[in-house]
């Protein structure tokens, strides 16, 4: 009887142990079991849709991709420019929209009848001008080049730029001109309190600092310096409404101030 009882007890304990093991397995999460519930969705703030570009902006972006310095802008016109006549005091104006918008010829032109060539392109920065300097200045064989650049550099039109980078590009254009026996007139950047297309950059003090460098560099190298800024600025170091509608581009009254200043600069350069 004792042996039988012992066997029954052992059997019972074996069954109980097996049942306990099965229960433990049932309560464990298999390692390969997939996630049964998806995590709650993360709410993402909808981004504001981009502002639609104007036709001009789309064309400008396409042009920058295909011809960054815009060599095509004056390519055909440059090919039509004949060599200077004997004794011709040809002058090329290199610049951005401030130069491009300057009317040279006609009844309201500042330099009617004079051999002055306008090679300004709206929106351009100084690195773009360096790349087209040979085509649009040197190959036209002027006696003098008038360089006005820096506004769009400070505005970041082709990306952020330091003043030192602008200075280097101005120096490069002046070096190219000098190496090709072209006399250099470096102009101050016009005053601007703000840029309507890139507001909040506080350009006024940056323009003052850049102009100080241009004046010093011109004196060091023997170039002519034309100071538009001092003659045109208001109390905020900006352009007054009498000279500009948008605070950047001159009205005829602004160009009327600039014309005699640059004429005096050209005269000085020709006398060198």
SSE blueprint:
Elements: H1 2-27, H2 55-66, H3 75-80, E1 91-95, H4 97-100, E2 116-120, H5 126-136, E3 144-147, H6 151-155, H7 163-179, E4 183-187, H8 203-221, E5 224-226, H9 228-232, H10 252-270
Q: How does this structure look, described?
A:
The protein is α/β, with parallel strands linked by helices and 272 residues long. It is built from 10 helices and 5 strands. The chain has a 5-stranded parallel β-sheet, sandwiched between helices. Helix 5 runs parallel beside helix 7 (163-179). The longest helix has 26 residues, at 2-27. The radius of gyration is 36 Å and the shape is globular. 32% of the residues are buried. Residues 1-36 have low confidence and may be disordered.
> Which stretches are low in confidence, meaning pLDDT under 50 for 5 or more residues running?
1-36
User: How is the main sheet built?
Assistant: 5 strands, parallel
Would you report the number of β strands?
A: 5
Averaged pLDDT, please?
Answer: 86
- What is the strand content? 5-15%
Distance between the termini: 135 Å
The ordered string of helix (H) and strand (E) elements is HHHEHEHEHHEHEHH
């Amino acid at each position: 009887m004792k042996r039988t009882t012992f066997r029954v007890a052992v059997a019972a304990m074996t069954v109980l142990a097996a049942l306990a093991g099965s229960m433990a397995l049932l309560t464990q999460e298999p390692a390969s079991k997939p996630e049964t519930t998806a995590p709650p969705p993360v709410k993402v703030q909808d981004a504001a849709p981009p502002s639609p570009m104007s036709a001009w902006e789309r064309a400008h972006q396409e042009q920058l991709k295909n011809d960054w310095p815009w060599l095509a802008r004056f390519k055909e016109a440059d090919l039509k420019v004949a060599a200077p006549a004997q004794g011709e005091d040809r002058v090329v104006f290199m610049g951005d929209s401030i130069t491009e918008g300057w009317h040279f010829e006609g009844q309201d032109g500042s330099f009617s009848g004079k051999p002055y060539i306008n090679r300004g392109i709206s929106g351009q920065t100084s690195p773009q001008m360096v790349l087209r300097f040979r085509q649009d200045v040197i190959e036209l064989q002027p006696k003098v080049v008038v360089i006005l650049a820096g506004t769009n550099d400070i505005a970041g039109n082709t990306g952020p730029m330091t003043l030192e980078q602008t200075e280097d590009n101005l120096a490069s254009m002046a070096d190219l001109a000098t190496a090709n026996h072209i006399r250099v007139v470096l102009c101050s950047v016009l005053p601007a309190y703000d840029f309507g297309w890139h507001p909040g950059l506080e350009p006024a003090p940056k323009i003052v600092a850049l102009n100080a460098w241009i004046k010093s560099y011109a004196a060091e190298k023997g170039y002519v310096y034309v100071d538009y800024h001092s003659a045109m600025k208001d109390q905020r170091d900006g352009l007054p409404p009498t000279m500009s509608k948008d605070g950047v581009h001159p009205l005829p009254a602004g160009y009327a101030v600039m014309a005699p200043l640059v004429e005096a600069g050209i005269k000085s350069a020709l006398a060198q």
